[in-house]
Model the fold of this input.
Amino acid sequence: MIFSKKRTKTEDNGLNVIPNHLAIIMDGNGRWATKRHLPRTAGHKAGSENFVKTVDECARLGIKYLTVYAFSTENWNRNQTEVDGIMEIMRSYIVKYVPILDKKNIRLRILGDLNYFDEESRNALIASVKKLENNTAFTLCIALSYGGRHEILQAVNRLLAEGKNEVTEKEFEEALYTAGIPDPDFIIRTSGEERISNFLLWQSAYAEYYFTKVLWPDFDESELRKALVEFGKRKRRFGK
Ligand code: IPE
Ligand code: IPE
Ligand code: MG
Done:
């Protein structure tokens, strides 16, 4: 395993295996806010701050791909105030962090159906991905307006439109939002829910899962460490 020079032995003691691709279902923002008698949007704000810290920590640990589930196709059905609040947080994230991601040599991919966004947000997302596309240190994938079934269907429809009536696994994977990204090795879900909620249905075929009761805004470096130590103990067999 490649250890970054910045890390000390004590700090990272126990992390002998690091997933190449970590995925996180960042759940529990609403309950975090409700517990504090705050509006749900305050939970999303706290969640987005934790997301920023997590990206840095994953890059520092030598993880090469991080995918976060930020907003599902089903989440569009939440009340308008909450959706508007989340979109506002997303827009300010882009403005503030895209130049920082660029300085850190981080590539960005958005996984999801951008047609759901208003034109301005859609263009901002496309421009951000384009600006960072040649970065090489780390790949950050944000699942935004993402649904696993939706992704599979759009791939099927795209292939049919190209005139195909039979495809290989490789061709199919190239039509998914995750084209060119290796499958996730480890999927963490916070907040105590033990389900996948339409996340990376195809790609997670052999992923290891980790569920914790900790709410996403509270899932800090030490919680990530605990999860990664657990990953190091898993025996992956891939059917062999
Ligand atoms: C996850 O937190 C963020 C999104 C789904 C956008 P939730 O908003 O689902 O928080 P809970 O599950 O209601 O606590
Ligand atoms: C899954 O969380 C989606 C995200 C974390 C973005 P939800 O809170 O939407 O999922 P359910 O409704 O509990 O299954
Ligand atoms: Mg939730």
